[in-house]
Structures are given as structure tokens and as C-alpha cells.
């Protein structure tokens, strides 16, 4: 399972960073014990999330940061609770950081700029899926239920940015933090109402600017039964035997179906007799942003779509799940984590003592 991604690299649950384009990988284990966050407060419980940062235009090296998130406190008031004035996150916030430059873990303190997110008892929330974006030496992590943590790897400082107000407290809402053409974006999709904000950072003043809003209901009402461009890559007996019981053939994919041209502005969904109508209880999910063009990917009725923010054009990309997988239980078809993937063709990372040469740290 992929825990995180950044500019062509994947961080896997097994404890390694891989480059699928070149089939190279680096082991991060063993993981270090978590550093103490707040002394003499044993009731404070956290869970860790690993985040990968990598920008091949600046350096061939990557880093992995382990960021703690608060778990809910016990509702039993008879048990010890954290002081109401205990702020989260603490300052300094000491994180475990792995660097491919040294191939070692280190404890790195980050000093907070500005106010904390709030008191511990108020900030703690149920564990969920978190998204992050790495932009110009800064990592933006969606934390807890209502704020984003901005960590600068250039000066080891962090700042709390509260989530856009209109993205809060809806009956059902798919939310996504990501990067695209102009920087860091936040999107919310609730009952087909799409809102997209861009983070504006003039002179250090962080604010979300609403740049797009629309009702996607009419566009999602009817879908064509097109195969489109969505495929499962590298599914075979060796890597996923549980997908194919005995007597069933592994999924085979044609290379010509692998490409999708997002630069094609002539987007027309031709009318087709073979269509499927959307159920009244069907929700749409945000899959991610295209990294270098303002396009948002959406999933509804097991189908993928591309929504062009600049032109409001809506493009159906076809079935998200191959036909061979529709015999599986529904729980195996749910999207738990999604991100657009851009291949990185750097074959090897440099050795620790040679920063400017591409050599053989990567294991083939």
C-alpha cells in the first residue's frame, strides 16, 4: 500500500521509497522511536503519518517526515484529561526525519510561527485519511479536522492555516489538499457543489482565495459506458494473486490505452445510446489535482472524470475499475487514497558523499 507520494516517488507501507518508473527503491527501516512531544502528559496519545518530500528540479535527494496527529481523548471525565490551556501542536515540534543524503533518521525541531491550532481537547479528532502537498521547499499537511500545517524545510519553522470556512460541517463532503499550476489548492465537493480555493501567501499572511465554484449535478447525472483511459497497472498473478481465483485469467492491458492527453482542449462527450443513470444516493469523490494544469479528477458511479477549472469543461474518462474486478466484494473497490502520478526518470540517487553524481544508492 502506498502511504504517500511526491513528484514520481512512492512511500510504501513496507517502509521503503520506490520509483515505479525505474523500478529502483531505498529501504528506510528500522524506524526510530517517536520523540517526546509534551513532557509529563502520558494521557496525550498520537498516531504517526509519514510524508515524502522530493523535488527533482532542486535536488536528487528526498526526505521523509513522520508527523504526529492527536487521537481523541477519553470521554470519561473521571479520567485524567489534558489541561485546557495545552496548545497543539507544541513548539518546538520535534519530528523524526529521514534524509536520503545521509541515509539516516534524525530528530529535527520545528518552531511555530503564529498561533497554535487550539487546545488539545478541542483539536483531537477521529483518525482519517490526510493529504499533503509539497511546494517550493514547503510541506503542507492536512491535519485533524479543521487545519493545515505548513512546514518549511528551508528554515525549520511551521505555521497553522485554518481550513476554508465554507468547507466545514457538511452532511457529506469529499475534501482534498493538493498542488496544481499556481500552488497549493483545497477542494470540497458536497452534494455535487464543488468549491476550489487557492492558498495565497502575500508577505507571510496565509489566506484561502475562492477561485472556482459550480454545481456538477447536471454533468454527473448520466454517464456513458465508455472504456476510457483508466486502467490498473501491473496486476498479475505474482503481485496480486488474491484478485484472480483459480480458473480466471490475469488482467492484460494494451499500451495504446495507457495515455490520456490533458492538453487537448477539444473536449466533447459524444452522445451514446449505451448510458447509465446516476443513483440518487450516489456521491462524487475528489481523486486529485493534475500537478501542472488546473484540472480536477473526480470519481462517481465507478467512473472517472476530468474537470477543467479554467474553462469549466467536463470530460468523462471512462470506467475507473476494470471489468475483471467487478466480481470482487464492494469493499475492495472503494477508493481510500488517490493521487495523480507523474513518472520520474532519475534512475539512481547519489551516494551520501557525492551530492552531484547519480550513483548506486538505489537497489535495482
From TrEMBL:
This is F-box associated domain-containing protein.
